[in-house]
Design brief:
The structure holds 2 protein chains of 2 kinds.
Chain A (H helix, E strand, L loop, with lengths): L3 E6 L9 H17 L1 E9 L5 H7 L4 E6 L8 H15 L3 E5 L2 H14 L3 E5 L1 E4 L5 E7 L4 E7 L5 E5 L15 E6 L10 E7 L10 E5 L7 H10 L3 E4 L1 H5 L20 E5 L16 E6 L12 E4 L2 H11 L4
Parallel strand pairs in A: 1-2, 1-4, 2-3, 3-10, 4-9, 5-9, 12-13, 12-14, 14-15, 15-16
Antiparallel strand pairs in A: 6-7, 7-8
Helix pairs in contact in A: 3-4, 5-7
Chain B lengths: L2 E5 L2 E3 L5 E3 L4 E3 L5 E3 L1 H17 L3 E6 L5 H10 L3 E5 L9 H15 L2 E7 L10 H9 L3 E11 L2 E8 L2 E8 L2 E5 L11 H9 L4 E3 L18 E8 L8 E2 L4 H14 L2
Parallel strand pairs in B: 1-6, 1-8, 6-7, 7-13, 8-12, 9-12
Antiparallel strand pairs in B: 2-5, 3-4, 9-10, 10-11
Classes of the chains: A alpha/beta, B alpha/beta.
The structure holds flavin-adenine dinucleotide (FAD) and adenosine monophosphate.
Flavin-adenine dinucleotide sits at the interface of chains A and B.
Chain lengths: 323, 261
């Protein structure tokens, strides 16, 4: 009998596989071992290139490439259609996607078409004693972790937050890339992309050192960015700073932004709201600077500096060798 | 412009919620509620679209009867109508069962050009409802939208994607999820609020008033269940207070920064 399968959606960006997909492959491999399932990476596009091999090196036992010129760039409806058909044919036990803009867009639509359960923004994955996928989701900011299972239907679907698992190079025996020529004959997409503007940002969840600017230092954003530069740290921001367009969403830390895994994080003028906290939960050392002694952020900090950030920042800049 | 339906959920304020490790449930007593923040942004956007293009703004919500008082705040902001889907059968719905129920109501309302949702709720926080709803209604979807321009039957939207944004177009009807924080929701109008409280009557639909099999709603219509709740965020921080003058505090920070290279 064929082994049951865990499928992982391999998101392309477009010339590489998104880190989150490789992170999930690593975790899927561990779950596969535990429950005797094989791990299959699924990618859509025009040509597989060498991306299949990269997935094989990161934990996939096999890669399925759904090939059609229509699939060159992402569209909700065409991708849903292609995946729906192959999933219905091969019925994997589990289907995991990154909780990225694209992953979430696709997973919602696909799960509804498949009439199966979907869990969003998962921060832990396990297999329970009955063989169900256990997906952990922080609730109410981050006070509780709800472990959710999909009790009816297959595949059991989840979107997994970036930066939760680490990608691992796994020695392969002999993985294969199966290319399926789809011949879709025309797009079903009703949404047309008129233009696109993207910048490449290195993944914030991998940074070793991060300096975060919150609302309290909105006026000093340039100085904080400069400080990050001087100290070899990456700049992060709380959501309102990104909302106001003062920094890219790619710099946002929190439940709807990145989860950091930094060794050291310095936080200026952030109040420590429920939705911010998941972003720093996995950091080793947290230093916070806030004017308000009663601020919640101090409960989640190793070093609590009650001070006006605009007084501290210039000194740090000077000490760091800025002139 | 035909109806603009705004899916609106009432959520507890996160800071009021507390987990009881003994009973492994959330303590809800004394908790204040509010219109989900992103939904408020969606309501504001719908009112702007209406001001420019006409149409009626209809709020649609699934939840217990106490939602009514909050939906009236939406009416006072300027929405034309509000419908509450309320029935014991709807309780315990996951996002799919929620979407199925909302979809049945949207079909019943009919005559719509746009369905707006918030990007996600602050309590459940899945952001799944908009795309599941779009699939069930067979509509084009555009998620994480920050700007909308309606021109005749054509819709142009700016949506956030990884690393930036896209400008996308589609016909209508279509379903959009609206990014949190994209606008400043207007305050409820005081006079309209008084009118809403006294004279406006909310439409309430139960399961039997919708064309949906009861077993497709609530717990029985759900595919996922919460297996257990555990306390999260257990990481204990040292909480060392760094005192002194700004100069001394900064020196301590420098010391730690140097430790980390
Ligand atoms: C569904 C949902 C998702 C969300 N996702 C996120 C997310 O991913 N990330 C996120 O960050 N937020 C998120 N939020 C928003 C979150 O709830 C808070 O509104 C936000 O985190 C507040 O940002 P802040 O702490 O920078 O600003 P504020 O709450 O305004 O706090 C500013 C802080 O700066 C301090 N301060 C002011 N001046 C100074 C000074 N001179 N020196 C030192 N300190 C000073 C103040 O004491 C205060 O503590 C989300 C909200 C919702 C509803
Ligand atoms: N019970 C509900 N009633 C009305 N709208 C809802 C409900 N649940 C979710 N929504 C809508 O779907 C969006 C995303 O919700 P969620 O998928 O739960 O994060 C919300 O911002 C609302 O617009």
């Amino acid at each position: 009998m064929n082994r049951k399968e865990i499928w992982v959606y391999l998101e392309r960006n477009p010339e590489e596989i998104e880190d989150v997909s490789l992170e999930i492959l690593g975790r899927a491999k561990e779950l596969g071992k535990k429950s005797d399932m094989s791990v299959v990476g699924v990618m859509l596009g025009k040509e597989p290139g060498n991306l299949g091999d990269i997935a094989l090196k990161h934990g996939a036992d096999k890669v399925i490439f759904l090939k059609d010129s229509l699939l060159e760039s992402y569209s909700t409806e065409d991708y849903t259609k292609a995946l729906f058909e192959i999933i219905n044919k091969r019925m994997p036990e589990i289907f995991l996607l990154g909780a990225t803009y694209q992953g979430r867009d696709l997973a919602g639509r696909l799960s509804a078409r498949l009439r199966t359960g979907l869990t969003a923004n998962v921060v832990s994955l396990d297999i329970d004693t009955d063989g169900y996928l256990l997906s952990g989701v922080p609730g109410y900011g981050s006070k509780v972790l709800a472990e959710i299972i999909c009790v009816r239907n297959k595949p059991q679907m989840s979107t997994v937050r970036p930066g939760i698992f680490s990608k691992k190079l796994i020695p392969i025996k002999a993985g294969i890339v199966e290319v399926l020529d789809l011949d879709l004959q025309g797009s079903v997409s009703r949404v047309r992309v008129v233009s696109r503007k993207v910048e490449k940002h290195p993944d914030l969840s991998r940074a070793e050192k991060v300096i975060i600017a919150g609302n309290g230092v909105e006026g000093n954003l340039d100085m904080v960015a400069k400080m990050a530069d001087i100290f070899g740290a990456r700049l992060g921001v709380s959501r309102p700073i990104a909302d106001k367009g003062k920094a890219s969403r790619e710099l946002q830390v929190g439940s709807t932004g990145y989860s950091l895994n930094a060794k050291l994080v310095l936080i200026f003028g952030v109040s420590g709201a429920e939705h911010f906290l998941p972003g720093i939960a996995n950091c080793q050392t947290v230093i916070s600077i806030n004017m308000d002694r009663e601020s919640d952020i101090f409960e989640y900090s190793d070093y609590c500096v009650v001070a006006d950030a605009s007084k501290i920042i210039p000194i740090l800049l000077r000490e760091g060798g800025d002139r | 412009m035909r109806n603009i339906i705004v899916c609106t959920k009432i959520v507890p304020k996160a800071e009021d919620m507390n987990f009881d490790p003994e009973t492994k449930t959330m303590k809800r007593s004394g908790v204040e509620n509010q219109i989900n923040e992103a939904d408020k942004n969606a309501i504001e956007l719908s009112l702007k679209i209406k001001e420019k293009n006409g149409g009626r703004v209809v709020l649609l919500s699934m939840g217990p009867p106490f939602f009514e008082q909050y939906l009236k705040i939406g009416i006072a902001m300027g929405a034309d109508d509000a419908i509450l889907l309320s029935d014991r059968l709807f309780a315990g719905a996951d996002t799919f069962a929620t979407s199925a129920t909302l979809a049945a109501a949207i079909r019943k309302i009919g005559d719509y050009d746009l369905v707006l949702c918030g990007e996600e709720t602050s309590d459940g926080g899945t952001g799944q409802v908009p795309s599941q709803l779009a699939e069930l209604l067979d509509l084009p979807q555009m998620l994480f939208v920050s700007e909308v321009d309606v021109d005749g039957n054509n819709l142009k939207a700016k949506r956030t994607i990884k690393g930036g944004y896209e400008i996308v177009e589609s016909g209508m009807p279509a379903i959009l999820s609206i990014e949190l924080g994209i606008n400043q929701p207007r305050f409820p109008d005081f006079k309209r609020k008084r009118w809403a409280d006294k004279e406006f009557s909310l439409t309430i639909w139960s399961a039997s008033s919708l064309e949906i099999k009861p077993e497709l709603t609530g717990t029985s219509g759900s595919y996922t269940i919460v297996k257990r709740l555990t306390e999260y965020f257990t990481h204990q921080r040292q909480r060392i207070s760094v005192e002194g003058t700004a100069e001394q505090q900064a020196n301590k920070i420098m010391e730690i920064l140097r430790e980390y290279g």
